[in-house]
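Section 5.1 Outputs to date
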Amino acid sequence: MYGIKWEDRISDLEILESSRCESIEALVLKQRLRWSGHLVRMKDSRKPKQLF
């Protein structure tokens, strides 16, 4: 997609920064926060809320 070759020796971090993609850590954190929001709004009797 970017026309980068193995011989160019560009790090993954540099590619992520240049493509303006979010890191995996940021994506996982967003999903955890979203799930936490769902849990807060659930009734106390629901199984997912009881587990967490």
